[in-house]
């Protein structure tokens, strides 16, 4: 069951003067990745083919993810009435394919699959929390808060199932760490970059990963503040079986924050040579 409905969003409170072009661009990309959640459910249900409880949970989860995409897409169409969400999403679907015929996890185990899902939900919950706080547009704030609450619930869902499978599969701490770190770095692969391309670039322009991931990340990484990375790091550590708070978490958060700033600077440099970075708090 969904926790909210799209028509609960106060769409009539939309304030055009408070929209920023960078926010519109990243929302268009995110709308497509979220809406593609239905395909992830197909993949997850193949991997967990003999686990009816998880298969049901995956179905419910994907309904929520698709709703995130529809809400973000609707906001982007309000902000940019020329934008055609359907056409952009069709383009994305035709060009970005998930391994829908896999019957085992691409992570090597079910525990691994669920750790990867925990990383994704850590990322999305932090991102929408940060985006809600970064934008001044009230409808986008509202939508992002609703989505962030779902993403925190999704984290808990996958975390609980992961613990269940870990007791059975017993994969080592280092394997879990490797999968978690691997999934975090994958955020710079094609999924978001290609979504940025389909959502923001003209059809005639050939997709190029470097250009598109810089365009997406250069903007998206700018919405984070230290507190968002701190909370996300706690969730990452918890997923691999470490304490979410304490000295390790403090040190890791500082490192991650520095790394994020460095990555962002690199992306922004590629985006527009000589672009000045907004001061990060
Ligand atoms: Fe989502
Ligand atoms: Fe989610």
Quote the distance from N terminus to C terminus: 38 Å
Main beta-sheet annotation = none
Portion of residues in beta strands equals: under 5%
The helix/strand class is mainly alpha
Small-molecule binders: fe (ii) ion
Rg for CA atoms = 18 Å
- Helical amount: over 70%
Shape: globular
Number of strands: 0
**Overall mean pLDDT score?**
94
Low-pLDDT segments, ≥5 res: 275-281
- Helix count? 11
N to C succession of SSEs: HHHHHHHHHHH
Description:
It is a single chain. This protein has about 280 residues and is an all-alpha fold. Helix content is about 70%, strand content about 0%. It contains eleven helices and no strands. The protein has helices spanning about 20-35, 35-45, 50-80, 85-95, 110-135, 140-170, 175-185, 190-200, 210-220, 225-240, 245-270. Helix 8 (about 190-200) packs across helix 9 (about 210-220) and helix 10 packs across helix 11 (about 245-270). The longest helix is centred in the middle third of the chain and has 32 residues, at about 140-170. The termini are far apart. Residues about 275-280 have low confidence and may be disordered. Bound molecules: fe (ii) ion (FE2) (2 copies). One fe (ii) ion binds near residues 65 and 124.
Question: What is shown here, in short?
Answer:
By secondary structure, the chain is mostly helical. It has 11 helices and no strands.
């Amino acid at each position: 069951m969904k926790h909210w409905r799209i028509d609960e969003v106060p769409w009539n409170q939309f304030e055009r003067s408070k929209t920023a072009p960078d926010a519109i661009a990243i929302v268009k990309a995110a709308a497509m990745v979220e809406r593609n959640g239905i395909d992830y459910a197909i993949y997850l249900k193949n991997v967990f083919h003999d686990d009816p409880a998880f298969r049901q949970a995956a179905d419910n989860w994907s309904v929520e993810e698709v709703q995130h995409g529809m809400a973000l897409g609707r906001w982007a169409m309000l902000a940019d009435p020329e934008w055609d969400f359907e056409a952009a999403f069709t383009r994305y679907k035709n060009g970005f394919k998930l391994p829908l015929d896999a019957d085992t996890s691409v992570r090597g185990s079910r525990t691994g699959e669920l750790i990867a899902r925990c990383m994704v939900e850590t990322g999305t919950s932090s991102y929408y929390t940060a985006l809600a706080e970064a934008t001044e547009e009230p409808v986008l704030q509202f939508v992002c808060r609703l989505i962030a609450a779902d993403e925190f619930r999704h984290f808990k869902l996958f975390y609980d199932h992961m613990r269940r499978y870990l007791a059975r599969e017993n994969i080592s701490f280092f394997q879990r760490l490797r999968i978690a770190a691997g999934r975090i770095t994958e955020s710079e692969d094609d999924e978001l970059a290609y979504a940025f391309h389909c959502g923001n670039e003209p059809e005639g322009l050939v997709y190029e990963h470097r250009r598109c991931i810089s365009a997406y990340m250069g903007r998206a990484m700018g919405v984070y503040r230290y507190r968002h990375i701190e909370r996300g790091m706690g969730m990452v550590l918890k997923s691999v079986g470490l304490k979410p708070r304490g000295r390790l978490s403090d040190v890791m958060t500082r490192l991650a924050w520095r790394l994020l700033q460095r990555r962002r600077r690199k992306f922004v440099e590629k985006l527009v040579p000589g672009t000045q970075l907004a001061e990060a708090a």
